[in-house]
Design goal:
23% of the residues lie in helices and 30% in strands. It contains three helices and nine strands. The protein is globular. The two termini are 18 Å apart.
């Protein structure tokens, strides 16, 4: 599968070292507070699992299943929630964990829904990757693993048509039209 990559941006050890740093930063911010982490499925699952094992705080974990790419290499702008009910986060400190901040559609939709329906004490966003580009929606992450260019990336949870999530590295996928995710 790594043969399908144009280039590798981050090897596994670099990713894990950065997770150690992010975990220290998050732990410092939430010290003395109980934290609820909401992982965005499916892309944020590997990142969230590895990150949470590094955070020595009492926490509650929940997941949200949403989709905005629908099998393509660009966000459609339409965010579909595959949840019967939203997590119970009223009055709680919430950290939303996702794989990538790209167009902003997904994280904006989730943040707005959580704030309007659940009244959390606080809501912060943590992403593994943040694309340095103009966003369709004005959302920013509070914690960022790595900044990247506007390239289509896979690995470490990120996929193309549900493939490549299990790569231990993050790389730029060789695409016929070189479009961005």
């Amino acid at each position: 599968m790594q043969d399908d990559l144009k280039k590798i941006l981050f090897q596994e050890q670099v990713i894990l070292s950065r997770l150690d740093e992010l975990a220290r930063e998050i732990t410092g911010h939430y010290d003395g507070k109980e934290l609820t982490v909401i992982a965005v499925l499916n892309g944020g699952l590997i990142f969230a699992a590895d990150l949470l094992r590094r955070i020595p705080l009492p926490l509650k974990l929940d997941c949200l299943s949403v989709a905005s790419y629908h099998g393509g290499i660009r966000s459609t702008g339409s965010v579909v929630f595959d949840q019967i009910s939203m997590p119970d986060i009223e009055g709680r400190h919430v950290l939303l964990v996702d794989d990538i901040l790209d167009s902003g559609h997904t994280l904006t939709a989730i943040s707005e829904k959580l704030r309007s329906e659940s009244n959390p004490a606080s809501l912060k966003i943590c992403v593994l990757l943040r694309k340095l580009k103009d966003r369709a929606k004005p959302v920013e992450a509070d914690y960022v693993g790595f900044d990247i260019g506007d390239e289509f990336v896979v690995g470490y949870g990120l996929d193309y048509q549900e493939r490549y999530r299990n790569l231990p590295c993050i790389g730029v996928l060789e695409t016929d039209n070189d479009s961005s995710k």
